[in-house]
Specification:
- The structure is a homodimer.
- By secondary structure, the first copy, chain A, is an alpha/beta fold.
- Chain A is 49% helix and 12% strand.
- Chain A is built from 15 helices and nine strands.
- In chain A, helix 12 links the parallel strand 5 and strand 6.
- In chain A, helix 2 packs antiparallel against helix 4, helix 4 packs parallel to helix 8 and helix 9 packs across helix 11.
- The two termini of chain A are 16 Å apart.
- At the A-B interface, helix 10 of A face helix 10 of B.
């Protein structure tokens, strides 16, 4: 598989490409399946329909990898937390985790309840062309914990920051519990057929440098190393969003570093390109316009040199109103410009 | 004034300190005045009460500078846009700017209508001790324009990004109009008595590197240079939030670069410390805890060396639930640790 080879810096006929949130609302075909499923969580829990939307971007865009359709919040959901997706508001946990007792009350083995995810993976693998990879994923302990403590999305992260600075022992107790669940969950995804796994730290940028390493990165690396010890042939991708200022501290055994669009590719290459394959990092909003898409793609490929060590991706997820034809154009352009 | 001397890297007896959003909800004394005023905008428009809250942190915390109490959105307000501050939602412009006609309809000289701000400045200057500075301010054209186009706060910035990538001529027309107003507004603040001015680019991080320089930084520098030509003795402080990855591109004639907490001070010092005085950058959430406050302050002072070239500040605004006593402790600690 081109994608898997690229993760290990092996020679590939071209630079592979996939797009974060490639299975999503910008695709009319996705919207149809979503309607059939009912709400968002019902879609995540329905292996047949989740497999269908997972496969759509491979067929429609020609990307080199599918990524499991699911949500990072299925972990706290299956730890027993009530979870609602409210219109315009995003995910809401009406009863956030705020005390040690709340942590103790969380079910320890959510991975046992996530069978619908493993079923989805199995269905996708049956139908996916042999040369395309399937990426499994999880949220990072920090990002998941932030939702659990804040009770949903947040602008100021006031609740969890108060914990970070005043009750670090509470934070670590929660992070350890979530990290253990993620380890088991990703292992089960791999055993069900995932060819690679990515850990999304969407809220990395909520933490200053020292605290980022203590409360987020250390846990991500621990999970990555746990997986690499057991499945060295499965690439592990880490994606911490918004930490361009912390690249000097990046360490650990994993394969691919996901570069967000706020981190210039030159900078990522200079600091990390020797040690990790880099994935990224087109600003998704460039897809609003075809010329801007082309200029952005060309610039990234110029920096990365159309050779090994790079997987093309967006620097963040697809936005719901981006035109599909520009996403298709992007995939073709990357393949054309990097063919060797 | 220690603060003004420090802006020009002159010798000072200690490192001066002030805190972004130091006049605000974390102060019970502020809440009292706020209640008297009614809503937030009424407080901004009432020079007597606005002056009172501007002065409070100087008296309560002992900071070296007061900053005008106002809001960056008074510019679009006085350009004729309807503006509401909704509970929990933040500022809302029910009729956002979306077309060239919308731009044309904006009143060109909002600075003429902002007399309540100049009155506030005059009142503050009368009452402020002679050794304390008064900082005037404005939002950056980009940050103000983002509110105007999005119609309020935004997570994805989808509306304005669509403009950036598909209608750059619309964006520049709007930015030019806003930038011209800001120039005149800041000049009038200086002529009313402001000793220094700061431009807040709170949403700098919404833009990838190239676009940041084209749609935000270039305009900020233009305003800074306009002011420096006319009032060379008035320090200009620029504060772009969340662009740790773009420091290589920073240029322009201004005096002080505001460092947010996501940009490690070592990095800012290495990249910019020779050319600009640096202001910052304690993570405000450290103030939740006294020990964490001390550790954070000591680390920053260690990096900046308790000498010229540094103004101590937070790396973002005070949060509403931070304890006042820790803010006081911070100010004393900075003065004590840097006395020379």
């Amino acid at each position: 598989m081109v994608f898997i080879d690229a993760c290990f810096r092996k020679k590939t006929p071209y630079t592979p490409v996939w797009l974060m949130r490639q299975a999503g609302r910008y695709l009319p075909q996705y919207m149809k399946v979503r309607e059939k499923a009912g709400d968002f969580l019902s879609l995540c829990k329905n292996p047949e329909l989740a497999a269908e939307v997972t496969l759509q971007p491979v067929e429609i865009l020609g990307v080199d990898a599918a990524i499991l359709f699911s949500d990072i919040l299925v972990i706290p959901l299956e730890m027993g937390m009530e979870l609602r997706f409210e219109k315009g508001e995003g995910p809401v946990f009406p009863k956030p985790v705020r005390t040690m007792e709340d942590i103790d009350a969380l079910y320890e083995f959510p991975e046992e309840r996530l069978t619908y995810v493993y079923e989805t993976i199995k269905l996708v693998k049956k139908r996916l062309p042999k040369d395309k990879a399937l990426i499994g994923f999880a949220g990072s302990p920090w990002t998941i914990a932030t939702y659990m403590v804040e009770g949903g999305g947040s602008k100021s992260y006031a609740a969890i920051k108060k914990k970070v600075y005043s009750e670090p022992e509470f934070m670590h107790a929660l992070l350890i519990k979530v990290a253990e669940a993620i380890k088991a969950y990703l292992i089960k995804q791999i055993e069900s057929g995932a060819d690679a796994v990515q850990i999304f730290d969407s809220w990395a940028s909520a933490l200053e440098k020292d605290k980022f390493f203590e409360f987020s990165w250390d846990y991500m690396v621990e999970i990555a190393e746990f997986i690499k010890e057991r499945y060295p042939h499965v690439p592990v991708i880490l994606f911490p969003k918004g930490i361009a200022g912390y690249l000097d501290g990046i360490y650990g055994k994993f394969d691919v570093f996901g570069v967000d669009w706020g981190t210039p590719m030159e900078l990522a290459k200079e600091k990390l390109g020797d040690r990790y394959v880099l994935q990224g990092n087109l600003e998704p909003a460039r897809l609003y316009n075809r010329d801007e898409t082309r200029v952005g793609v060309e610039k990234i490929i110029e920096v990365m040199g159309a050779k090994e060590g790079h997987i093309f991706n967006l620097g963040h997820g697809m936005m719901p109103d981006l035109p599909v034809e520009n996403a298709k154009y992007l995939v073709e352009l990357v393949h054309d410009l990097t063919r060797r």
